[in-house]
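ok trying this again, last paste got cut off
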Amino acid sequence: DRAAGVAILLSNTAEKQVESFGSEGERVCWVRLRGPICHLFIIGVYMPHRARTTPSQGDTMHDLEKALSCVPQGDCICVAGDFNEQLPYLHVQQAGLASMSGARSHLMPIK
C-alpha cells in the first residue's frame, strides 16, 4: 500500500532495551522493551480512512487484534497511532479497547 506506512522511532537508550519487534500487515507494527518493573509492549497503528477498501479499517483492526494477542501476560501495553477518525464503537469493543473520555487518540487495552 503506497499510501501508508507505520513505524516506531526509538531513542538510543530505548533501542538498547529492545526484546523483540515485528509487524502485522503494513499498518500495524510493534516493539517490546525491557522495563525495570514490567516489559513495555508498544503498538503503532496507521488506520485507513473509512472509504479505503484495501486494506479496510476492518482489515487493520484484525491486524491490531493479532498484535494484541501476542502480548505476553504482565506486559504494559501502549497503542498509539494515526486513527484518522473516530472508530465505530463496535470495532473498539471487538478489539478489547476502550476510549478514555471519548477521545479518539487515547485508546487503552482492557483485560
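PB: full thing came through this time. Confidence is low (pLDDT under 50) at residues 98-111.
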